[in-house]
Write a structure and sequence with these properties.
Order of helices and strands: HHHHHHHHHHH
Shape: elongated
Oligomer: single chain
Distance between the termini: 35 Å
Strand content: under 5%
């Protein structure tokens, strides 16, 4: 911890506590003590305990979102390719979240409902303005229709996160694929996107969900 900046020390301390205690019992005071700093110093970096928890989750699972943000900033990449990058980032983040959750401690799994909710909130808050700008670019170029880019971006991300999370209404990979296929078709028709442009969404989403479901069992077999 000595070589890390204070913000990282705070996040490390919070993550350690989250792995051994319930989130409800973790306080800013406990995080400060675990980080070896004064409680007042924490508020220089974070306004609340919830903001610290969000930052821990964001740091753990959203490397692919950072990469996606960098890519879509390029003027050399077309609108539909940018949409694919954002959607793929949501898929990859969801899979990494599930992978880490599967190998996490019992305490983390017990409080997973709150972590799932925070995970979805962070994806939506980070990706909504970026996706909305992509829709606006498409409108300006005359290659798609979207009267409400901000709201449409939010709807798209909410559907993706809920479907890929698969904890609110659990289902199998086949059903996930059908839902994502229907969702891709809805977007293509309502936004006048060329047919089959979003086919990757159903294929990649279902395949990754299927692989992720099998992985814990395979890991247990290998350990045994």
């Amino acid at each position: 911890m000595k070589n890390q900046n204070k913000r990282e020390r705070i996040l490390d301390a919070a993550q350690e506590l989250m792995e051994t205690s319930s989130i409800r019992s973790v306080s800013v005071q406990k995080i400060a003590q675990n980080a070896g700093i004064g409680k007042g110093s924490i508020y220089y970096y974070f306004s609340s305990k919830n903001e610290i928890i969000e930052a821990v989750i964001e740091r753990s699972y959203f490397r692919v979102l950072d990469e996606a943000q960098t890519l879509v900033a390029s003027q050399a990449i077309g609108v539909f390719e940018k949409m694919k990058i954002i959607y793929q980032a949501c898929l990859d983040s969801s899979i990494e979240f599930k992978r880490q959750e599967a190998i996490s401690s019992f305490n983390v799994q017990q409080q997973s409902a709150l972590i799932h909710q925070t995970f979805a909130q962070v994806i939506i808050s980070r990706m909504q303005p970026i996706l909305a700008d992509i829709f606006r670019q498409g409108m300006n170029e005359g290659i798609l229709c979207c009267d409400y880019p901000e709201e449409t971006a939010r709807i798209v991300l909410m559907v993706l996160t809920v479907t890929l999370d698969n904890s609110l209404a659990p289902t199998d990979a086949g059903q996930i694929r059908r839902v994502l296929s229907a969702f891709a078709q809805m977007q293509e028709k309502t936004m006048e996107i060329p047919k089959n442009t979003l086919d990757f969404l159903a294929v990649n989403g279902a395949e990754k969900s299927s692989l992720e479901k099998e992985r814990p069992d395979k890991e247990q077999e290998e350990k045994g």
